[in-house]
């Protein structure tokens, strides 16, 4: 296992005019569960291929424990990979599949048998070790593929490329939990590449968000959610994503735009639609975090202290926003005017975070 570092790493495909990856800097600690999260075209596959040794960075370097491995083959780096679709030899049993990567590297019979026992126990697949892949579910096959990746004891890192894609929908969460447990038990550096924020945020200790070939933010799931340092992260993480309003409208000086999560609203403030309440302007004026608008729709998500709770979409003079809170039963309907008070927001300038702003 190794500490991984990307140092000013850039990559341009031959003949392309622009760089697909530009100036990436990232440190991944030995034993970390890390996710690379980005939308289609962000550069995830390209970066994965650089990590696995299929592509060589155009400039900058990739280091394992401080040693530049940019030009080493994946095998010499001891990198293992789990693909979207399980890659197994159909004619071999589960145990023989697990033994395969060890045999190709001429491990002795004792080590092979120890590793197979160890992996079967860790992945809880002992009962299927004699079976052929054709008799297994996709979930079981992918577990065996993970086992193959972990077979070699000194693997530097395991790359997981959208590993839940092919498994049956009802077993996705089980595979994700198993991966998380195995990663924590074995302390193997794992890099999980995905476009799915739920997978990334539930698997990883830290997540790097990729956009247009750059890493826009690296942080714990909590940091990415509560304090996005780039507007893209605010949009991309969370469902729905962050709301953005012109900071000027919120009465904040020194920043261009203010971002806030739907639930950053003062508790209880939503009680009673303020139809024509004094101070609520029909144009949706906004001062120091108090926002007025008209209700476009409501979506109940559950109950809090016996009262319906959910998302309310408001049309304000500065654009549509989603807020989360209590939905006064039968009193709040489309068209009602509503005033809410934000508790906090994040101030941005040029899409970059400038500061956190507390209102209450
Ligand atoms: N062989 C190639 N030659 C030139 N450009 C390429 C090549 N492969 C990918 N690209 C470009 O690099 C960019 C990043 O692609 P990449 O496949 O790494 O993104 P991704 O985040 O993995 O997307 P997806 O999730 O759709 O696979 C895209 O604009 C893509 O068109």
What this model shows, in words?
With 360 residues, this protein is α+β, with helices and mostly antiparallel strands. The chain has three domains: 1-78 and 158-239, P-loop containing nucleotide triphosphate hydrolases (Rossmann fold), CATH 3.40.50.300; 88-153, no CATH class; 240-358, no CATH class. Helices cover 24% and strands 32% of the residues. It contains nine helices and 19 strands. It has helices at residues 44-52, 74-77, 94-104, 109-122, 138-150, 172-186, 197-203, 221-226, 231-236; strands at residues 4-11, 21-28, 33-38, 59-64, 67-68, 79-82, 157-161, 190-194, 206-211, 214-219, 243-246, 257-260, 286-287, 290-304, 307-316, 319-326, 337-341, 344-349, 352-358. The strands form four sheets. It has a six-stranded mixed sheet, sandwiched between helices. Strand 18 (344-349) and strand 19 form a beta hairpin. The two termini are 47 Å apart. Residues 275-286 have low confidence and may be disordered. The structure holds adenosine-5'-triphosphate. Residues 4-237 form the ABC transporter domain. Keywords: ATP-binding, Nucleotide-binding. One of its GO terms (molecular function) is ATP binding. This is ABC transporter ATP-binding protein.
